[in-house]
Each structure stands twice: as structure tokens, then as C-alpha cells.
Amino acid sequence: MLNRLFKLKQTGTNIRTEIIGGITTFMTMSYIIFVQPAVLSQAGMDFGAVMLATCLASALATILMAFLANYPIALAPAMGHNFYFVFGICLALGVPWQVALGANFISGFVFVILALFGLRAMLLNAVPSSLKNAIAVGIGLLIALIGFEWSGIVVANPGTLIGLGNLRSQPVILSILGIIIISIMIVKKIKGAILIGIIISAFIGWLMGIVKFAGLVSLPPSINPTLFKLDISSALTLKILPVIFILFFLDLFDTVGTLIGVGQEGGFIKEGKLPRARRALLSDALGTVAGTCLGTSTVTSYIESATGISQGARTGLSNLVTALLFLLSIFFFPVVKMIGGGYATEAGLTLYPIIAPALIIVGCIMLKNVVKVQWNDYTEAIPCFLTLTTMAFTFSITEGIAFGFISYAFLKLVSGRFKEVHWIIYLFAFLFLLRYIFLK
Question: What is the pTM of this model?
Fold first, then answer.
């Protein structure tokens, strides 16, 4: 039955290989179970409910990918999107998390429609390659900055805004050890380096007295604090329109980029195209819609799926294994709370010394796209520079994308190369300008 359902023989794989691939993929991406509730709780969301929503949404979307597209590509709430949700929408704009979930739902719903009717290609191609890569780099810088702040390595400084923290304090020492441990394992190509690093850091933190052991297994936390709490009607306003646009495009960039990257790794690309691409995109979009209803941010395909593929996974059966492990994780809430919970310092700061190293390393990984920017062409280089630096320096993905779009359209226009720019870029550059004129 499994062979017929997932075409195992046809794709040159077997049940054992798919199980190993599914476990490997879970090991490399399951850090999101610890990170997601720690991040979204900053916006006032219930830690336990977010953890449960994350596991359920990840499992559901991963199962959808298995049955709709038959690819070993797992899904979960996206890194970068979760930080934009909290710091770019809720904290920067003062938007309640319920409204932010509503905006995310609308974004996901639009993605579903476009995936069904195949209109996504026009929108994706409208954004130049350089800006796509600069956006990814900028998000990486922002994630790394948050990681440095959560570790206590970087602190507020009245003279320079930020400065070096106390490197002798226990949480900072633990964070530095975490960075070293994860870095060593990544260099040695150890599968699940980030997850293993988090667990080792938690153990060291327990020995140092920073982490308090609270048990291993329990009944799942209640999801009621976030279940169906999204506010769609309040998200349908002019103020939230740019937010919906950015949520949608970030999801589109991530999904297509991941499908292409993982597709190349697994040999799924045929004559330059990914078979069943529309079904894969639909799985992603439905995952986001379901995730917002449960109480978590944008769900998208994970590039970490390439690790499972490297172990031989070739079908959706691998995804079923990954999804099952996400479902089993809901019974380990005490561990998640212990690792993802904050540590209050004597200075009144709340640090996350176990989670922070993972954010710093993920930020590093996302910076690799900087080489894909056309730095020799200043009509490309300047907008990309403004995009990635503005994101980090203003603590806002929205402002980074806005500066990038406006400067890109302007420089192409004044250089006489206006035909290189898709009309969609001009439209949103104009809308971003109006936003600064009337809403700022």
C-alpha cells in the first residue's frame, strides 16, 4: 500500500530509507519548537499555546505536502517571518497579535488563490533577484542582532545605542558556549547540529543553575489562548495593507526558493521545472492558513529538508515520519518551557541564553545570499545595501523592503533603465512613499 501510495519503487527508495530521512529532517528543523514560542510570546501570546500550535501546524502542513505533492519537504513556522510578526508588526506598529494573525491569514488565503490559479510566477518574477537575496540577508542580520541581544552579548548603550555586554556574566558565558558548540558541530557536518547544541546548552545551563529542571513529559498545554483568536476584520485596513503585502511576498520568496533548492538537491527538477509545483505551493499556503487559525505565524517549506534528502528520502512517506515526530513533541512541553523560557538577570533584563546561539547561527547561514547581489551595478547594489542595512538598523523588515523598493525604482528611473523594472515594483514603491508621507 505504501509503495503504491508514495511510488517508492518508482523513485528508487524504500521504507527504511524514508524513515531515516524523515527523522533526519526533523532533527535539523525541530529547533523551531523551542524558538517559536519564545519569539511569539514577546508579543503577548501564550507560550504553551504557541508551542502546541507550532507542532500541530507543522505536522498538518507536512502531511499535506506528503499527500498532495509526494515530496520529502517538511514545513514549519518560518524563521524571519516570526520575527517580522513580533518585532515588525506587533511591537513596531503597535498591532495586537490577534490582528497580526488576521493579516497573516489574509496573506495565506491570497497565496492559496494564486497557487490554485497559477498566478504566482508573475508576482515572483516582478521582484528582481538582487532584492530577493538582499531581503534574505537583511532578515539574517536582524535575526542575528536579536540573538546577540537575547544572549546579553550586545546591550543598550546610551552613547552608541548598542554596545558590548558583560562577557563574565553566567548567561553570556552560556550563550558563547552555545555558539561554539553549534559551530563545531556544523563544521563537522553533524546532522541536527542546532538541536543538539540547544540540548547540550540546556544541560550546561542546568549545571550552572541558570536552567531549572521541570520534568520531561506532560499532557499537552492548552491551545485555547490562541485557537481561532485571529482578527481578520481589523486587518482589512490601509495601515495593515503593507503588512499583508510583505507577509505574502516573504512567504512566496521563501517557498519558491526552498522548493528550487531542495528540488535540485533531490533531483526533482525536470527540464528546469518542478513537477507538481502547484500542489507543493498549495500545501505551503494551506499550512499558513491553518497555522494562523491555530495561533502561529507563517508556515513554509524548510530548506533543512535537504538533510533528509541527503539520507535518501525521495517521497512523502518521509514527511509522515517528520509529522509524527512533531505530534509526539507536544508531550514534551516541560522541556520546551525549560529551554525556551527566559532568564531574569539582576539588571532587570530577560535573556534567552539557550535559544540565542541558534538565532545567531541561523543569521550567519542566511548571509550566504549576499554574494548573489550584483555589487558592480550601483542601480542594484545601493537598493540592496539600503534593504539589508535598514532592516537591521531600524529593527524592521518592513522599512528595509520599503527603502529597497523605493530606491530601486528611483535609480532605475533616473539612469534611463526604467524598462528593467516591473510595473508592480513601481506600484509598491509609490504606495510605500504614500505610507511615509501620510502614515508616518
Answer: 0.80
